[in-house]
């Protein structure tokens, strides 16, 4: 579905990404991980056409995204970013913004079809009960669900998420990613998301691409990417990688400086 070929891009005179080659198959969940400053968010901005490549190209269903009309692209790609939503809108009004790419040329108001889609998306994300509440009066986890509901209202085939679990407690982290997994499995939604937490990436992604200094350091299934050697080389920290006893996915354990020093003295 998504093919990134030799991508190079950045801001003004600063090159952030170089020689990025990555493919995302239909109905797949692919995670983007890497240290701060490695280019994860920049990659999503390029895929969503907020940032124009200096080199290479990005293809969606075989078509260069820069050859597509923006409205057409918005019907295929939806983005859940880290930006705060407009807090004066109600949850329903906010979710209905996702229907704008489907408006006809002279349409200014939502149709019954738009309300039906928005309600279905609010049901899927469990925010229907909040539909009349202002965005500014709900919790961080609920805001994240509202952001996902708005993205789903676009009826995309590809969902981009930029650190969807940031600042959320463990229960909301699991709840958000369980929802993403259900949407992927039941609706065939293709997902490309940036994650900081390596264990969440391991547990929820079919494949992972590890970025380092603006390049793809390695990519593959979690078992291939999340080895202690790779993590220590890229993140410059000591870790232990075990197997999750329930899922058998890799599980990364941190080792503190104090513990490292204690073991050296033994």
Helix content: 25-40%
SS elements, strand count: 12
Helical run tally = 10
How would you characterize the largest beta sheet? 6 strands, mixed
Helix and strand sequence: EEEHEEHEHHHEHEHEEHHEEH
The spatial strand order of the largest sheet comes to 6-7-8-3-9-10
Q: Which class do the helix and strand fractions yield?
A: alpha/beta
CA radius of gyration is 20 Å
Q: How many angstroms does the end-to-end distance come to?
A: 53 Å
Assembly state: single chain
Please sum up the structure shown:
This protein has 266 residues and is an alpha/beta fold.
Q: Would you mind describing this structure in some detail?
A:
By secondary structure, this protein is of the alpha/beta class. The chain has helices at 40-47, 70-76, 91-96, 112-124, 140-153, 170-187, 198-204, 222-225, 228-235, 257-265; strands spanning 2-11, 14-24, 29-33, 55-60, 63-64, 77-80, 158-162, 190-194, 207-212, 215-220, 239-243, 250-254. The strands form 3 sheets. Strands 6-7-8-3-9-10 form a 6-stranded mixed β-sheet, sandwiched between helices. A 4-stranded antiparallel β-sheet has the order 2-1-4-5, covered by helices on one side. Strand 4 and strand 5 form a beta hairpin. The model has no long low-confidence stretch (mean pLDDT 94).
Q: What attributes does this structure have?
A:
266 residues; alpha/beta; six-stranded mixed beta sheet; four-stranded antiparallel beta sheet; 35% helix
